UniProtKB/TrEMBL annotation, chain A:
Residues 63-249 form the BPL/LPL catalytic domain. It comes from the Eukaryota. Gene3D superfamilies: Bira Bifunctional Protein, Domain 2, CO dehydrogenase flavoprotein, C-terminal domain. GO terms for biological process: protein lipoylation. One of its GO terms (molecular function) is lipoyltransferase activity. It comes from Magallana gigas (Pacific oyster). It holds the Pfam family LplA-B_cat. Belongs to the LplA family. This is BPL/LPL catalytic domain-containing protein.
TrEMBL record, chain B:
Its cofactor is (R)-lipoate. It comes from Magallana gigas. Keywords: Lipoyl, Mitochondrion, Transit peptide. InterPro entries: 2-oxoA_DH_lipoyl-BS, Biotin_lipoyl, GCV_H, GCV_H/Fam206, GCV_H_sub, Single_hybrid_motif. This is Glycine cleavage system H protein. The gene is gcsph. Belongs to the GcvH family. One of its GO terms (cellular component) is glycine cleavage complex. GO terms for biological process: glycine decarboxylation via glycine cleavage system; protein lipoylation. CDD domains: GCS_H (cd06848). Its main location: mitochondrion.
Length: 381, 161
Protein backbone atom coordinates (compact mmCIF):
# COMPACT_ATOMS: atom_id res chain seq x y z
CA UNK A 1 0.00 0.00 0.00
CA UNK A 2 1.61 3.26 -1.11
CA UNK A 3 1.45 5.71 1.80
CA UNK A 4 -0.81 8.74 1.27
CA UNK A 5 2.12 11.16 1.39
CA UNK A 6 3.91 9.40 -1.47
CA UNK A 7 0.69 9.23 -3.52
CA UNK A 8 0.27 12.96 -3.07
CA UNK A 9 3.85 13.60 -4.15
CA UNK A 10 3.40 11.55 -7.31
CA UNK A 11 0.21 13.41 -8.07
CA UNK A 12 1.95 16.74 -7.56
CA UNK A 13 4.75 15.81 -9.98
CA UNK A 14 2.20 14.60 -12.54
CA UNK A 15 0.27 17.86 -12.28
CA UNK A 16 3.35 19.97 -12.96
CA UNK A 17 4.33 17.79 -15.91
CA UNK A 18 0.85 17.96 -17.39
CA UNK A 19 0.82 21.73 -17.05
CA UNK A 20 4.14 21.95 -18.84
CA UNK A 21 3.00 19.72 -21.71
CA UNK A 22 -0.30 21.53 -22.18
CA UNK A 23 1.65 24.76 -22.50
CA UNK A 24 2.58 23.67 -26.00
CA UNK A 25 -0.85 22.47 -26.91
CA UNK A 26 -3.96 24.14 -28.16
CA UNK A 27 -3.88 27.85 -27.77
CA UNK A 28 -7.36 28.89 -28.52
CA UNK A 29 -8.24 31.50 -31.08
CA UNK A 30 -11.59 32.05 -29.44
CA UNK A 31 -10.26 35.11 -27.64
CA UNK A 32 -10.79 36.91 -30.93
CA UNK A 33 -14.42 35.85 -31.41
CA UNK A 34 -16.53 37.24 -28.61
CA UNK A 35 -18.05 34.53 -26.43
CA UNK A 36 -20.31 35.47 -23.50
CA UNK A 37 -18.37 33.26 -21.07
CA UNK A 38 -14.76 32.19 -21.04
CA UNK A 39 -12.72 29.90 -18.86
CA UNK A 40 -9.01 30.69 -19.07
CA UNK A 41 -6.27 28.71 -17.33
CA UNK A 42 -2.72 29.97 -17.09
CA UNK A 43 0.22 27.90 -18.28
CA UNK A 44 2.54 29.88 -16.01
CA UNK A 45 3.25 29.22 -12.36
CA UNK A 46 4.89 32.59 -11.75
CA UNK A 47 2.89 34.78 -9.34
CA UNK A 48 3.83 38.11 -10.95
CA UNK A 49 2.93 36.86 -14.41
CA UNK A 50 -0.43 35.57 -13.25
CA UNK A 51 -1.34 38.66 -11.25
CA UNK A 52 -0.28 40.79 -14.21
CA UNK A 53 -2.63 38.93 -16.54
CA UNK A 54 -5.47 39.20 -14.08
CA UNK A 55 -4.88 42.95 -13.89
CA UNK A 56 -4.66 43.17 -17.66
CA UNK A 57 -8.05 41.44 -18.03
CA UNK A 58 -9.56 43.74 -15.38
CA UNK A 59 -8.23 46.92 -17.00
CA UNK A 60 -8.51 46.14 -20.68
CA UNK A 61 -11.26 43.61 -21.34
CA UNK A 62 -14.71 44.80 -22.28
CA UNK A 63 -16.91 42.86 -19.88
CA UNK A 64 -20.23 44.39 -20.91
CA UNK A 65 -21.28 41.16 -22.58
CA UNK A 66 -18.70 38.79 -21.21
CA UNK A 67 -17.77 37.07 -17.94
CA UNK A 68 -14.40 35.41 -17.46
CA UNK A 69 -13.23 32.75 -15.05
CA UNK A 70 -9.43 32.81 -14.85
CA UNK A 71 -7.66 30.03 -12.95
CA UNK A 72 -4.02 29.55 -12.08
CA UNK A 73 -1.51 28.04 -9.66
CA UNK A 74 1.83 29.38 -8.43
CA UNK A 75 5.10 28.00 -7.23
CA UNK A 76 5.65 28.97 -3.57
CA UNK A 77 4.76 32.61 -2.95
CA UNK A 78 3.17 34.87 -0.40
CA UNK A 79 0.56 37.35 -1.58
CA UNK A 80 -0.48 40.32 0.54
CA UNK A 81 -3.50 42.59 0.13
CA UNK A 82 -3.27 46.09 -1.38
CA UNK A 83 -2.97 47.91 1.94
CA UNK A 84 -1.05 45.43 4.01
CA UNK A 85 2.35 45.55 5.64
CA UNK A 86 4.53 42.69 4.37
CA UNK A 87 6.91 42.92 7.34
CA UNK A 88 4.04 42.27 9.72
CA UNK A 89 2.22 39.68 7.65
CA UNK A 90 5.06 37.34 6.79
CA UNK A 91 8.71 36.50 7.38
CA UNK A 92 10.33 38.75 4.78
CA UNK A 93 13.98 37.72 5.30
CA UNK A 94 13.07 34.03 5.42
CA UNK A 95 11.13 34.29 2.16
CA UNK A 96 14.18 35.78 0.51
CA UNK A 97 16.46 33.07 1.82
CA UNK A 98 14.07 30.31 0.67
CA UNK A 99 13.42 31.81 -2.76
CA UNK A 100 9.73 32.32 -2.04
CA UNK A 101 8.27 35.23 -4.02
CA UNK A 102 6.39 38.03 -2.31
CA UNK A 103 3.65 39.84 -4.22
CA UNK A 104 1.12 42.58 -3.47
CA UNK A 105 -2.35 42.30 -5.05
CA UNK A 106 -4.44 45.22 -6.26
CA UNK A 107 -7.45 43.85 -4.39
CA UNK A 108 -7.94 44.17 -0.65
CA UNK A 109 -8.05 41.44 1.96
CA UNK A 110 -5.44 39.49 3.85
CA UNK A 111 -2.20 37.61 3.39
CA UNK A 112 -2.12 34.15 1.79
CA UNK A 113 0.53 31.55 1.07
CA UNK A 114 0.45 29.90 -2.36
CA UNK A 115 2.14 26.85 -3.73
CA UNK A 116 1.21 24.31 -6.39
CA UNK A 117 -1.26 22.82 -3.91
CA UNK A 118 -3.39 25.94 -4.12
CA UNK A 119 -5.82 26.83 -6.91
CA UNK A 120 -6.59 30.48 -7.61
CA UNK A 121 -9.94 31.40 -9.16
CA UNK A 122 -10.75 34.84 -10.42
CA UNK A 123 -14.24 35.79 -11.61
CA UNK A 124 -14.10 38.88 -13.80
CA UNK A 125 -17.46 40.48 -14.46
CA UNK A 126 -19.12 43.80 -15.24
CA UNK A 127 -20.14 45.81 -12.18
CA UNK A 128 -23.89 45.01 -12.29
CA UNK A 129 -23.05 41.30 -12.19
CA UNK A 130 -20.62 41.51 -9.26
CA UNK A 131 -21.73 38.88 -6.74
CA UNK A 132 -19.19 37.09 -4.54
CA UNK A 133 -21.65 34.70 -2.97
CA UNK A 134 -22.78 33.48 -6.36
CA UNK A 135 -19.21 32.66 -7.36
CA UNK A 136 -18.42 30.84 -4.14
CA UNK A 137 -21.67 28.85 -4.31
CA UNK A 138 -20.86 27.84 -7.88
CA UNK A 139 -17.49 26.45 -6.79
CA UNK A 140 -19.00 24.58 -3.84
CA UNK A 141 -21.64 23.06 -6.15
CA UNK A 142 -18.94 22.07 -8.63
CA UNK A 143 -16.78 20.33 -6.03
CA UNK A 144 -19.62 18.60 -4.21
CA UNK A 145 -21.02 17.33 -7.52
CA UNK A 146 -17.92 15.20 -8.03
CA UNK A 147 -16.61 14.46 -4.53
CA UNK A 148 -18.28 13.67 -1.27
CA UNK A 149 -16.97 16.56 0.84
CA UNK A 150 -18.68 18.69 3.47
CA UNK A 151 -18.18 22.13 1.98
CA UNK A 152 -20.08 25.33 2.74
CA UNK A 153 -19.84 29.10 2.41
CA UNK A 154 -20.00 30.87 5.80
CA UNK A 155 -21.15 34.41 6.72
CA UNK A 156 -17.64 35.81 6.20
CA UNK A 157 -17.81 34.42 2.67
CA UNK A 158 -15.10 31.86 3.39
CA UNK A 159 -15.38 28.35 1.98
CA UNK A 160 -15.33 26.07 5.01
CA UNK A 161 -14.61 22.34 5.13
CA UNK A 162 -16.39 20.18 7.68
CA UNK A 163 -17.72 23.28 9.37
CA UNK A 164 -14.31 24.04 10.85
CA UNK A 165 -11.49 24.48 8.39
CA UNK A 166 -11.02 27.38 6.06
CA UNK A 167 -10.04 26.24 2.59
CA UNK A 168 -10.41 29.58 0.84
CA UNK A 169 -9.60 33.27 1.28
CA UNK A 170 -11.52 35.86 -0.74
CA UNK A 171 -10.80 39.39 -2.01
CA UNK A 172 -12.13 41.69 -4.71
CA UNK A 173 -11.57 44.83 -6.73
CA UNK A 174 -14.25 47.21 -7.99
CA UNK A 175 -13.56 49.61 -10.81
CA UNK A 176 -15.58 51.93 -13.01
CA UNK A 177 -17.11 49.21 -15.18
CA UNK A 178 -15.20 46.05 -14.38
CA UNK A 179 -14.80 44.03 -11.22
CA UNK A 180 -13.06 40.90 -10.14
CA UNK A 181 -13.54 38.55 -7.24
CA UNK A 182 -10.72 36.12 -6.61
CA UNK A 183 -10.06 33.49 -4.02
CA UNK A 184 -7.70 30.66 -3.14
CA UNK A 185 -8.65 27.01 -2.80
CA UNK A 186 -6.38 24.80 -0.70
CA UNK A 187 -6.24 21.31 -2.10
CA UNK A 188 -2.72 20.15 -1.28
CA UNK A 189 -0.71 23.02 0.15
CA UNK A 190 2.42 22.45 2.26
CA UNK A 191 1.14 23.48 5.68
CA UNK A 192 4.57 23.53 7.33
CA UNK A 193 5.89 25.99 4.74
CA UNK A 194 2.73 28.05 5.05
CA UNK A 195 3.17 28.41 8.80
CA UNK A 196 6.85 29.29 8.47
CA UNK A 197 6.20 31.85 5.74
CA UNK A 198 3.37 33.64 7.54
CA UNK A 199 5.13 33.99 10.89
CA UNK A 200 6.40 37.55 11.18
CA UNK A 201 9.47 38.31 13.34
CA UNK A 202 8.68 42.02 13.41
CA UNK A 203 5.37 42.18 15.25
CA UNK A 204 6.80 43.21 18.63
CA UNK A 205 6.53 46.90 19.44
CA UNK A 206 4.97 47.90 16.11
CA UNK A 207 2.20 50.41 15.52
CA UNK A 208 0.59 50.14 12.12
CA UNK A 209 -2.42 51.41 10.18
CA UNK A 210 -2.23 48.65 7.57
CA UNK A 211 -5.05 46.16 7.12
CA UNK A 212 -4.49 42.95 9.07
CA UNK A 213 -5.14 39.34 8.24
CA UNK A 214 -7.51 37.06 10.09
CA UNK A 215 -5.86 33.74 10.83
CA UNK A 216 -7.91 30.53 10.67
CA UNK A 217 -7.46 26.79 10.93
CA UNK A 218 -6.95 25.23 7.53
CA UNK A 219 -7.16 21.84 5.91
CA UNK A 220 -6.40 20.55 2.44
CA UNK A 221 -9.23 19.21 0.27
CA UNK A 222 -7.04 16.30 -0.79
CA UNK A 223 -7.11 15.03 2.79
CA UNK A 224 -10.78 14.19 2.16
CA UNK A 225 -10.17 12.65 -1.25
CA UNK A 226 -6.72 12.30 -2.78
CA UNK A 227 -8.09 12.62 -6.32
CA UNK A 228 -8.83 16.30 -5.68
CA UNK A 229 -5.99 18.16 -7.40
CA UNK A 230 -5.31 21.12 -9.67
CA UNK A 231 -6.31 19.43 -12.94
CA UNK A 232 -9.52 17.87 -11.65
CA UNK A 233 -10.57 21.10 -9.91
CA UNK A 234 -9.94 23.19 -13.03
CA UNK A 235 -11.99 20.68 -15.01
CA UNK A 236 -14.97 20.49 -12.68
CA UNK A 237 -15.14 24.23 -11.86
CA UNK A 238 -14.58 25.30 -15.44
CA UNK A 239 -17.38 23.08 -16.72
CA UNK A 240 -19.72 24.16 -13.92
CA UNK A 241 -19.13 27.79 -14.95
CA UNK A 242 -20.27 27.07 -18.50
CA UNK A 243 -23.12 24.84 -17.33
CA UNK A 244 -24.62 27.47 -15.01
CA UNK A 245 -24.30 30.09 -17.72
CA UNK A 246 -26.22 27.78 -20.02
CA UNK A 247 -23.53 27.85 -22.69
CA UNK A 248 -21.13 25.42 -24.33
CA UNK A 249 -17.45 26.15 -23.97
CA UNK A 250 -13.94 24.81 -23.71
CA UNK A 251 -11.38 25.32 -21.01
CA UNK A 252 -8.65 27.38 -22.67
CA UNK A 253 -5.01 27.20 -21.69
CA UNK A 254 -3.30 30.52 -22.29
CA UNK A 255 0.20 31.92 -22.17
CA UNK A 256 -0.09 35.01 -19.96
CA UNK A 257 3.19 36.40 -21.30
CA UNK A 258 1.94 36.62 -24.88
CA UNK A 259 2.18 40.30 -25.80
CA UNK A 260 0.44 39.73 -29.12
CA UNK A 261 -2.75 38.69 -27.32
CA UNK A 262 -2.28 40.78 -24.16
CA UNK A 263 -0.37 43.90 -25.24
CA UNK A 264 1.14 45.70 -22.27
CA UNK A 265 1.04 42.74 -19.89
CA UNK A 266 4.85 42.65 -19.53
CA UNK A 267 4.84 46.23 -18.32
CA UNK A 268 2.27 45.37 -15.66
CA UNK A 269 4.37 42.38 -14.63
CA UNK A 270 7.50 44.52 -14.33
CA UNK A 271 5.73 46.92 -11.96
CA UNK A 272 4.29 44.04 -9.92
CA UNK A 273 7.76 42.63 -9.33
CA UNK A 274 9.35 45.93 -8.34
CA UNK A 275 10.34 46.93 -4.79
CA UNK A 276 8.34 50.17 -4.96
CA UNK A 277 5.05 48.34 -5.45
CA UNK A 278 5.71 45.40 -3.15
CA UNK A 279 7.22 47.32 -0.23
CA UNK A 280 6.96 51.02 -1.09
CA UNK A 281 3.17 50.91 -0.97
CA UNK A 282 3.13 49.89 2.70
CA UNK A 283 1.03 52.23 4.88
CA UNK A 284 2.90 54.24 7.52
CA UNK A 285 4.06 52.32 10.55
CA UNK A 286 6.51 52.63 13.40
CA UNK A 287 8.47 50.44 15.73
CA UNK A 288 9.37 51.13 19.35
CA UNK A 289 11.79 48.68 20.94
CA UNK A 290 13.78 48.63 24.15
CA UNK A 291 16.76 46.36 24.67
CA UNK A 292 18.59 45.69 27.92
CA UNK A 293 21.97 44.12 28.53
CA UNK A 294 22.67 43.20 32.14
CA UNK A 295 26.15 42.09 31.19
CA UNK A 296 27.07 45.47 29.76
CA UNK A 297 24.84 47.39 32.16
CA UNK A 298 23.15 49.30 29.36
CA UNK A 299 19.74 49.96 27.88
CA UNK A 300 18.91 50.94 24.31
CA UNK A 301 15.76 52.53 22.95
CA UNK A 302 15.06 52.40 19.24
CA UNK A 303 12.16 54.24 17.64
CA UNK A 304 11.71 54.21 13.89
CA UNK A 305 8.95 55.70 11.75
CA UNK A 306 8.50 54.18 8.30
CA UNK A 307 6.84 55.78 5.31
CA UNK A 308 6.65 54.21 1.87
CA UNK A 309 8.87 51.40 3.11
CA UNK A 310 11.66 53.82 4.07
CA UNK A 311 12.98 55.02 7.42
CA UNK A 312 11.37 58.42 7.81
CA UNK A 313 12.67 59.06 11.31
CA UNK A 314 15.06 57.18 13.59
CA UNK A 315 15.73 57.78 17.25
CA UNK A 316 18.44 55.62 18.81
CA UNK A 317 19.22 56.36 22.43
CA UNK A 318 21.64 54.43 24.60
CA UNK A 319 21.98 55.26 28.28
CA UNK A 320 25.74 54.69 28.08
CA UNK A 321 27.61 57.95 28.70
CA UNK A 322 30.80 57.08 26.79
CA UNK A 323 31.36 59.71 24.04
CA UNK A 324 32.36 57.22 21.30
CA UNK A 325 29.14 55.29 21.87
CA UNK A 326 27.09 58.49 21.70
CA UNK A 327 28.89 59.39 18.50
CA UNK A 328 28.09 55.98 17.05
CA UNK A 329 24.36 56.21 17.81
CA UNK A 330 24.19 59.76 16.41
CA UNK A 331 25.89 58.67 13.18
CA UNK A 332 23.65 55.63 12.90
CA UNK A 333 20.55 57.79 13.35
CA UNK A 334 21.67 60.10 10.59
CA UNK A 335 22.66 57.38 8.16
CA UNK A 336 19.51 55.32 8.60
CA UNK A 337 17.32 58.23 7.52
CA UNK A 338 15.79 57.68 4.09
CA UNK A 339 17.08 54.11 3.76
CA UNK A 340 14.71 51.49 2.40
CA UNK A 341 13.82 48.73 4.82
CA UNK A 342 15.75 46.15 2.84
CA UNK A 343 18.96 44.21 3.12
CA UNK A 344 20.81 46.07 0.35
CA UNK A 345 20.28 49.51 1.86
CA UNK A 346 20.68 48.58 5.51
CA UNK A 347 23.76 46.41 5.05
CA UNK A 348 25.67 49.55 4.10
CA UNK A 349 24.72 51.32 7.30
CA UNK A 350 24.72 48.45 9.76
CA UNK A 351 27.97 46.81 8.71
CA UNK A 352 30.42 46.26 11.52
CA UNK A 353 33.08 48.95 11.49
CA UNK A 354 36.71 48.66 12.50
CA UNK A 355 36.57 49.12 16.25
CA UNK A 356 40.15 48.15 17.06
CA UNK A 357 41.02 51.67 18.18
CA UNK A 358 38.44 51.48 20.98
CA UNK A 359 38.71 49.87 24.39
CA UNK A 360 37.09 46.47 24.85
CA UNK A 361 34.00 47.69 26.71
CA UNK A 362 33.23 50.31 24.05
CA UNK A 363 33.63 47.70 21.32
CA UNK A 364 31.20 45.38 23.05
CA UNK A 365 28.58 48.09 23.55
CA UNK A 366 28.75 49.22 19.93
CA UNK A 367 28.55 45.65 18.63
CA UNK A 368 25.58 45.05 20.90
CA UNK A 369 23.80 48.23 19.67
CA UNK A 370 24.41 47.08 16.10
CA UNK A 371 22.88 43.67 16.82
CA UNK A 372 19.83 45.25 18.47
CA UNK A 373 19.23 47.41 15.40
CA UNK A 374 19.50 44.39 13.11
CA UNK A 375 17.04 42.53 15.31
CA UNK A 376 14.57 45.44 15.45
CA UNK A 377 14.68 46.04 11.70
CA UNK A 378 14.31 42.32 10.97
CA UNK A 379 15.58 42.26 7.43
CA UNK A 380 18.03 39.48 8.07
CA UNK A 381 21.17 41.53 7.59
CA UNK B 1 -59.48 96.64 26.23
CA UNK B 2 -56.32 98.61 26.65
CA UNK B 3 -54.38 95.41 27.24
CA UNK B 4 -55.93 93.70 24.23
CA UNK B 5 -55.34 96.84 22.20
CA UNK B 6 -51.69 96.92 23.22
CA UNK B 7 -51.36 93.23 22.41
CA UNK B 8 -52.91 93.63 18.99
CA UNK B 9 -50.79 96.67 18.38
CA UNK B 10 -47.74 94.73 19.53
CA UNK B 11 -48.57 91.88 17.15
CA UNK B 12 -49.13 94.28 14.27
CA UNK B 13 -45.79 95.85 15.00
CA UNK B 14 -44.17 92.42 14.95
CA UNK B 15 -45.87 91.60 11.66
CA UNK B 16 -44.62 94.86 10.26
CA UNK B 17 -41.11 93.93 11.30
CA UNK B 18 -41.52 90.42 9.86
CA UNK B 19 -42.67 91.87 6.58
CA UNK B 20 -39.58 94.04 6.44
CA UNK B 21 -37.37 91.07 7.33
CA UNK B 22 -39.14 88.97 4.67
CA UNK B 23 -38.42 91.62 2.08
CA UNK B 24 -34.76 91.70 3.03
CA UNK B 25 -34.58 87.90 3.11
CA UNK B 26 -36.11 87.70 -0.35
CA UNK B 27 -33.37 89.83 -1.77
CA UNK B 28 -30.74 87.74 -0.03
CA UNK B 29 -32.33 84.56 -1.42
CA UNK B 30 -32.09 85.90 -4.93
CA UNK B 31 -28.44 86.66 -4.32
CA UNK B 32 -27.93 83.16 -2.96
CA UNK B 33 -29.38 81.51 -6.06
CA UNK B 34 -27.19 83.51 -8.44
CA UNK B 35 -23.97 82.84 -6.57
CA UNK B 36 -24.83 79.21 -5.77
CA UNK B 37 -21.40 77.95 -6.67
CA UNK B 38 -19.84 80.09 -4.00
CA UNK B 39 -21.68 78.27 -1.23
CA UNK B 40 -21.62 74.64 -0.08
CA UNK B 41 -23.69 72.99 -2.80
CA UNK B 42 -22.99 69.36 -3.58
CA UNK B 43 -22.78 67.95 -7.10
CA UNK B 44 -22.94 64.18 -7.63
CA UNK B 45 -21.51 61.77 -10.19
CA UNK B 46 -22.99 58.52 -11.46
CA UNK B 47 -20.19 56.75 -9.65
CA UNK B 48 -21.52 58.14 -6.36
CA UNK B 49 -18.80 60.69 -5.63
CA UNK B 50 -19.77 64.23 -4.65
CA UNK B 51 -17.97 67.54 -4.95
CA UNK B 52 -18.83 70.51 -2.77
CA UNK B 53 -17.76 73.89 -4.06
CA UNK B 54 -16.50 76.58 -1.72
CA UNK B 55 -14.96 79.41 -3.70
CA UNK B 56 -11.97 78.10 -5.64
CA UNK B 57 -11.82 74.79 -3.81
CA UNK B 58 -13.79 71.59 -4.27
CA UNK B 59 -14.15 69.05 -1.47
CA UNK B 60 -14.63 65.47 -2.62
CA UNK B 61 -16.36 62.58 -0.87
CA UNK B 62 -18.64 59.61 -1.49
CA UNK B 63 -22.39 59.46 -1.05
CA UNK B 64 -24.55 57.75 1.57
CA UNK B 65 -25.56 55.21 -1.03
CA UNK B 66 -21.93 54.42 -1.85
CA UNK B 67 -20.80 54.03 1.75
CA UNK B 68 -23.70 51.72 2.41
CA UNK B 69 -22.80 49.58 -0.61
CA UNK B 70 -19.16 49.43 0.45
CA UNK B 71 -19.63 48.17 3.96
CA UNK B 72 -17.28 49.11 6.77
CA UNK B 73 -14.26 50.97 5.43
CA UNK B 74 -11.00 49.62 6.88
CA UNK B 75 -8.47 51.61 4.88
CA UNK B 76 -8.49 54.79 2.81
CA UNK B 77 -5.85 55.44 0.18
CA UNK B 78 -5.87 59.13 -0.76
CA UNK B 79 -4.07 61.08 -3.50
CA UNK B 80 -0.95 63.01 -2.56
CA UNK B 81 -0.97 66.78 -2.35
CA UNK B 82 -0.08 68.49 -5.66
CA UNK B 83 -1.25 65.49 -7.69
CA UNK B 84 -2.87 66.65 -10.93
CA UNK B 85 -6.13 64.78 -11.54
CA UNK B 86 -8.26 64.63 -14.67
CA UNK B 87 -12.03 64.18 -14.57
CA UNK B 88 -12.72 60.46 -14.17
CA UNK B 89 -9.17 59.55 -13.24
CA UNK B 90 -8.55 57.20 -10.34
CA UNK B 91 -7.94 59.37 -7.29
CA UNK B 92 -7.78 56.77 -4.54
CA UNK B 93 -9.03 53.48 -3.15
CA UNK B 94 -11.45 52.67 -0.36
CA UNK B 95 -10.92 49.25 1.13
CA UNK B 96 -13.79 47.67 2.97
CA UNK B 97 -14.26 44.15 4.20
CA UNK B 98 -16.03 43.50 0.93
CA UNK B 99 -13.69 44.94 -1.64
CA UNK B 100 -11.10 47.49 -2.70
CA UNK B 101 -13.12 50.14 -4.60
CA UNK B 102 -11.64 52.80 -6.77
CA UNK B 103 -12.59 56.44 -6.24
CA UNK B 104 -12.75 58.58 -9.39
CA UNK B 105 -12.18 62.31 -9.43
CA UNK B 106 -15.46 64.07 -10.32
CA UNK B 107 -13.61 67.09 -11.74
CA UNK B 108 -10.16 68.12 -12.97
CA UNK B 109 -7.70 70.02 -10.81
CA UNK B 110 -4.83 69.75 -8.37
CA UNK B 111 -5.06 68.12 -4.95
CA UNK B 112 -4.58 70.66 -2.16
CA UNK B 113 -5.42 68.66 0.94
CA UNK B 114 -6.13 65.08 1.99
CA UNK B 115 -8.25 64.17 5.01
CA UNK B 116 -5.58 62.73 7.28
CA UNK B 117 -8.17 62.00 10.00
CA UNK B 118 -9.11 58.98 7.89
CA UNK B 119 -5.71 57.41 8.60
CA UNK B 120 -6.73 56.69 12.18
CA UNK B 121 -10.47 56.54 11.64
CA UNK B 122 -11.37 55.18 8.20
CA UNK B 123 -14.87 54.46 9.46
CA UNK B 124 -15.64 58.21 9.31
CA UNK B 125 -16.39 57.57 5.65
CA UNK B 126 -19.33 55.40 6.76
CA UNK B 127 -20.43 57.42 9.78
CA UNK B 128 -20.18 60.90 8.31
CA UNK B 129 -19.78 60.64 4.56
CA UNK B 130 -20.93 64.22 3.86
CA UNK B 131 -19.00 65.95 6.63
CA UNK B 132 -16.13 64.48 8.66
CA UNK B 133 -15.64 61.65 6.14
CA UNK B 134 -14.60 63.93 3.23
CA UNK B 135 -11.72 62.47 1.23
CA UNK B 136 -9.66 65.24 -0.32
CA UNK B 137 -9.79 68.86 -1.57
CA UNK B 138 -8.73 70.13 -4.94
CA UNK B 139 -8.66 73.20 -7.18
CA UNK B 140 -11.39 73.53 -9.82
CA UNK B 141 -9.63 73.81 -13.13
CA UNK B 142 -12.79 73.75 -15.31
CA UNK B 143 -15.91 75.06 -13.54
CA UNK B 144 -17.97 74.03 -16.58
CA UNK B 145 -17.39 70.38 -15.63
CA UNK B 146 -19.80 70.93 -12.76
CA UNK B 147 -22.62 71.48 -15.27
CA UNK B 148 -22.45 67.80 -16.23
CA UNK B 149 -22.90 66.63 -12.66
CA UNK B 150 -26.17 66.02 -10.80
CA UNK B 151 -27.65 68.17 -8.07
CA UNK B 152 -28.82 66.34 -4.98
CA UNK B 153 -32.48 65.97 -6.08
CA UNK B 154 -31.45 64.52 -9.43
CA UNK B 155 -28.94 62.20 -7.81
CA UNK B 156 -31.58 60.88 -5.39
CA UNK B 157 -33.82 60.12 -8.36
CA UNK B 158 -30.90 58.46 -10.13
CA UNK B 159 -30.17 56.03 -7.30
CA UNK B 160 -33.86 55.19 -6.91
CA UNK B 161 -33.74 53.90 -10.47
Amino acid sequence: MIPLYTRLCFRRILTSKESFLLCNQRYSQSLKSNPSHQVLVSTSDDIYTNLALEEWLYEKENLTDKSILFMWQNKPSVVIGRHQNPWLECNVPRLRDCGIDLARRISGGGCVYHDLGNLNCSFLKAKPLYNRRQNLDLVVRAITSRWDVDLQVNVREDIVLEGLYKVSGTASKLGKHNTFHHFTLLHDVNVENLEMALESPMKMGVQSKATESTRSRIKNLSECDFTIDFMSLVDVIGHQFYKEAGVQGEIEWINPKDESVFPGVSEIRKLAEGWEWKFGKTPKFSTNRTFTSDKLGTELSLICNFEKGRIHRAEIVCDCSIPTVKEYTDTLQRELLGQRLCREDLNQVLKVHDLSHLVRHEQLVIEWINQCCVQALCTGV
Amino acid sequence: HEVIGRCIFGQLNKLQKCKTIAKVTNIQCRNISISQRLLGVKYFTEKHEWVEVNGEVGTIGISEFAQDQLGEVVYVQLPEIDTELELGQEAGVLESVKAASEVYSPISGVVTEANTALEDAPKLVNDSCYEKGWLYKMTIREPSELDHLMKEEDYLKFIKD
